Each structure stands twice: as structure tokens, then as C-alpha cells.
Amino acid sequence: MDFEVIIGLEVHAELSTNTKIYCGCTTEFGGEQNTHCCPVCLGLPGSLPVLNKKVVDYAIKAGLALNCDINRLTHMARKNYFYPDTPKNYQITQDETPLCRDGYIEIETEGGLKKIGIQRIHIEEDAGKNVHMEDSSYVDYNRAGVPLIEIVSKPDMRSPKEARMYLEKLKAILQYTGVSDVKMEEGSLRCDANISIRPEGSNEFGTKVEVKNMNSFRAVERALEYEAKRQMEAYERGEKIIQETRRWDEGRGETVTMRSKEEAHDYRYFPEPDMIYLSVDDEWIESIRKSLPELPDARRRRYINEFGLPEYDSEILTSSKKLADFFEECVNEGGRPKEISNWIMGEILRTLKDRSMEIEDIKFAPGHLVKLVSLVDKGTISGTIAKKVFKDMFETGEDPEKIVKEKGLVQVSDEGAIRELINKVLDENPQSVADFKAGKTKAMGFIVGQVMKASKGKANPQIVNKILTEELNKR
């Protein structure tokens, strides 16, 4: 039997404000436990929350960037639950009146452009963090009261791959707008998924399962792939799919039951009595709309039209604002767009991946990459030497011209010196010469390699090929 997979995502993004949502405590990541706290975020008796306007600004900005309608009149609600990391025993959030609603994100699928609906975006406060030791547990309230937006998609995704694409686009948009630093490793971006299956052609939704504890986009995709397969196999065995919450176990590569629907919380939402209604007028919305930057899709189209880059290059370069900024700085320094793109998507991204680094961790300036490419274009160094210079540049952040000069890496273009070197190599490799004369073209590549090795990679490859051809024809 063929099945259709139905996926919806709930994403929490930590907002990039300097202070918490209802008090003046810092939102800085880390710090000694329980030092970023005050009576308000600790929920002490008599303390009252005051809404941080910047939180509303950022939430509206995210909503506009995600094509949402902004609700003009909203209010906060209490979400009641008892857990050690929630000092008030409730969370101040939004329930019936989210700040933003009815938006969408467009992703490029194999079948073309697809809209993934966004049901709502609401603001809320984060909880603290439970710290479990071998023989005891502690609570760190530094994170309690840090402002979040929860972005709830519609169940429009039909594969784990689409879910990952949606998350990647969402992350890029939030990064471009500056509303969140979207660092999953610091908990700034967290994702839960709802997934169900139904027989192909059916219009009724199946029983949904919530999946938690996914700390990377790859983990989201793997967890949903596993869960879809688990549900399909259960369905075919005639088993009933239970509505439950499951946890992704990265080590085992499977989802594990956490709690069933019967064990789920009843949050007993009711309006927050300590806060007045939030009124957002048109002037406020339009002022934020005017502050929106160029978003990923618009930047991607510009790279295609203005720089003549292929769709693939443009997609990769604009996937991260900082990566796109680095590319444009290189172009502004005089670099040719396609050459710079090749270096970024080749050596730079490969090195960053190998070292688990981000583009902002690079020590050298964009202008240094432009200089490196220029040294190759001028024939000062070869492409092979350029990669060696790049490694030094990556390690030290030094100017490539300085590295080339100090290490004596200038390319040899003296035809007399190269001819002498070639004849020496030919004399030392008579069998390769004979093989070439016998029509074995691979011998030419071997000889070129020996010449480059003898010159320590400094010989100009074009001149080597030209003179080698001449000398071989003489023999």
C-alpha cells in the first residue's frame, strides 16, 4: 500500500533582544548559574511583568518577513503547568490571539515552487534549564524569561526532506531579519514535529505523533524518516497508531515513547490578569515593514540577474546571510562573481565543514580572497599553489601576497629554466617517453606531474605543457 506523509512543525526561536521579555535581566548565553535572574523572572510574590517592546517589534518583523497578517489587538495568556524549570508554575504566552497568523514560506521542490502555510506566530517566555547530575538535579533559571517566538506551520509538508527545506528557509529568513541568531547549539532554534500517515488518495488525516529532542536539521530529517516508516509498518500489521509524544534517540537512530495522549498536559489557559491588551496600529506595522532587509529569495534572484550566477550557486550563497555578505564584500572589492563563488563553495565551505566552523570564524578579510584569485589570474602563482596559500591564509589571516613572498611561491614562467627542467625529467624517464611515442597518452600526464613535482609546484602549467609537447616531438 502507498502512503502519504503529513508533517507540521512547531519552531521556537529565541529573539535577539538584550534583555528578557518581562524584566531587565540580560539574555546573554551562558554565565554562572542563576546570576541572570530577578524577582520577576523567578516568579517571586508581588513581582509584576512589563512587556519588552523590542520583543513585539521583532515578532512583527518576523511575521511580515513570513508573509503573515498582524493581529491589531492581542492579549497574553497563562499556560499552567508544574515543572521545576517553570518558577511561576505557569508560562506567559499567547493562546487565542497570536500576534501573527496566516503566513507562508516558499520552498523549491522537485515538483516546483511549493507554499508551506504558517498558521500562527506568538510570543512567549522561555523556561529555565534542568541540570541532571549523577545523584541529584538542579535548576538554572538564567534562561527563564528569555523571549521566544513560536512559529507553527500548517500540516503542508509531505516528506522529511520538505520539512528540512522549510527549516533551512525559515532559519535563513530569521537570520536575515536579525530577529534571532538561530544557533541550534545554544538552543536559539528548537523544533518539534507532528507527523502522521494516511493511505494515498485519502482525505482524512491519520493519528498524529509528536516528535521531540531533535537538535539539528539532519536529526529532524532522520527522525521523521524513521517515524514515517514505523507508522507505515504498524499500519500494515493492522496495529492502531497511538497519539503520543516520542523522543528522538540520536545514538539509536529511532524514536522512543515519552508519554501518551492520556498523560498529556491540560494547560488550562486563561487571560494573563497582570497584563493589559496589546494594541498594534498600522503606523507601527508600516514602520517595521520599512525596516525589512532584502530577504533570501530576493537576494537569490538578484545574484542570478545581476551577477549572472547559476541558480545552484545563488541558492547556496544566500542560504546564510553572513555567507552572502562575505560573497558580496568580495565582489565589491573587485572579485569576479563566478570565480569568487567557486572558491567559496569549494575551498571555503569544505574547510569550514571539516573544522566545524562558521563563515564568521574566518580570520582573513574578503579582500584577501580577491587578492588570492588575482594572483592566479596574473600568473604569479598556479592554482595548485593557490590552494596551499589559502590554507596558510585560513590559519593565520595574513595577506596572500605576503605569504607568497615570504615562502618563495612565485610561479616560474622562465621558458629556459622550464625547458631545462623538462629535459632532465625526460632523460630520467625514458620508458614514459617511449610509452607516449607508442600512443599511450596517459604517459603525458605522468611526465607533467614529474615536472611539477621537480619544480615544487612552481612551474607555470601552461608553459610546461607547451614546451613538453615541443620536446617530446623532437625525440
Summarize the structure.
The protein is α+β, with helices and mostly antiparallel strands and 475 residues long. The protein contains 15 helices and 16 strands.
- Helical segment tally? 15
Q: In what range is the share of β-strand residues?
A: 15-25%
What is the typical, i.e. mean, pLDDT?
Answer: 92
Structural class: alpha+beta
EC number: 6.3.5.-
Keywords: ATP-binding, Ligase, Nucleotide-binding, Protein biosynthesis, Transferase
Domain Asn/Gln amidotransferase: 325-472
Protein name: Aspartyl/glutamyl-tRNA(Asn/Gln) amidotransferase subunit B
Features:
single chain, 475 residues, alpha+beta, Arc Repressor Mutant, subunit A, 3 domains, nine-stranded mixed β-sheet, three-stranded antiparallel β-sheet, elongated
Overview of this structure, please?
By secondary structure, this protein is of the alpha+beta class. It has three domains: 3-286, no CATH class; 293-406, no CATH class; 415-474, Arc Repressor Mutant, subunit A (Orthogonal Bundle), CATH 1.10.10. It contains 15 helices and 16 strands. The chain has helices spanning 53-65, 160-177, 217-236, 282-290, 296-307, 311-317, 321-332, 337-354, 366-377, 383-396, 400-406, 415-428, 430-437, 442-454, 461-474; strands at 3-14, 69-70, 73-74, 77-80, 90-93, 100-109, 112-125, 129-132, 137-140, 147-153, 189-199, 209-214, 244-249, 254-260, 270-271, 278-279. The strands form four sheets. A nine-stranded mixed beta sheet has the order 2-6-7-10-1-11-12-13-14. A hairpin with a 4-residue loop joins strand 8 and strand 9. The longest helix is centred in the middle third of the chain and has 20 residues, at 217-236. It is elongated, with a radius of gyration of 29 Å. The protein starts with a strand and ends with a helix.
